[in-house]
Amino acid sequence: MDLRPRFTEALKASMLAKDAARTSTIRMILAKLKDTDIAARKAPTDPGVPDEQIAAMLRGMAKSRREAVELYRQGNRPELAEKEEAEIAVIESFLPAQMDEAATAAAVDAAIAEAGAASIKDMGKVMAVLRARHAAEMDMAKAGPLVKAKLGG
């Protein structure tokens, strides 16, 4: 997936295209990534956080903007909501495609089988398997309730 070079290339392209909104959003992503790298750094020579962590950071940025969109709509500020939605589109363009419901259900079934889960007490094991296998392309907030339902919780 190697996201860091994609950010740099996208920034160059948006600057050449004079796309101010996209350039601004990519710069925001790069600033957040720098903060994340610094927070996770143990030694000055650390290469930075891995792509899985970058993807999680991007999902967090998109989630906070979705919450802002809701608040702007409630506050009757459609122009601000549109700005946030444009930022979400840029942020999500760097994320791998999310699994659909059928693929998520199949992955949950496979994880339950792999973890040997028999009851709701095994939910943690199943979620760990899902995180290890599908962290980038699966919304864990949606997977949790599905795992719980399948384990009879």
Automatic annotation (TrEMBL):
Superkingdom of origin organism: Bacteria
The protein's name in its UniProt record: GatB/YqeY domain-containing protein
InterPro entries: Asn/Gln_tRNA_amidoTrase-B-like, GatB_Yqey_C_2, YqeY/Aim41, YqeY/Aim41_N
